[in-house]
Amino acid sequence: MADFKKEGNIDINQWRLFRNMFVAKFNTADADKNLFLSPAEFVTSMADIPVLTKTLADPIQQAQLLNDVSGRPDKEAATINFFEWMFIRQCAVAWSVGSGM
Ligand SMILES: [Ca+2]
User: Fold this and answer.
1) Which of 2, 27, 49, 60 has the lowest tally of Cβ within 10 angstroms?
2) Contact by Cβ (8 Å): 60, 67
3) 39: CA distance to ligand 1 center in Å?
């Protein structure tokens, strides 16, 4: 994903774009710095993704989204790690771009 020029490696500018788009966004949203995102932290991390606005505003749909990705249905375990968050974020960004939002 970071190698958007398809050169087989990434330069420092590509790394910084990737870092700003994903790593920094995750770290900023992780308010308690435990390297997991709670449902509230997750909502913060996705606030700039237009296609998820309605889903995240509905607590039931939000819980279903987190459960679908994490596979952990109970509320206490409804935190997601960076890998799980990356999957959602990549899909949401691609979905937004694809839908012209
Ligand atoms: Ca956290």
Assistant:
1) 60
2) no
3) 9
CB atoms within 10 A of CB 38: 19
Contact 21, 85 (CB under 8 A): no
* Alpha carbons 2 and 75: distance in angstroms, whole number: 33
Give tens-digit pLDDT for 60-87.
Answer: 888 888 777 777 666 555 788 999 899 8
**Diameter over CA atoms, the chain:** 43
79 Cα–ligand 1 center, Å: 8
pTM: 0.75
CA of 86 to the centre of ligand 1 (A): 15
Which amino acid, 4?
F
Q: Distance between CA 53 and CA 60 in Å, rounded?
A: 13
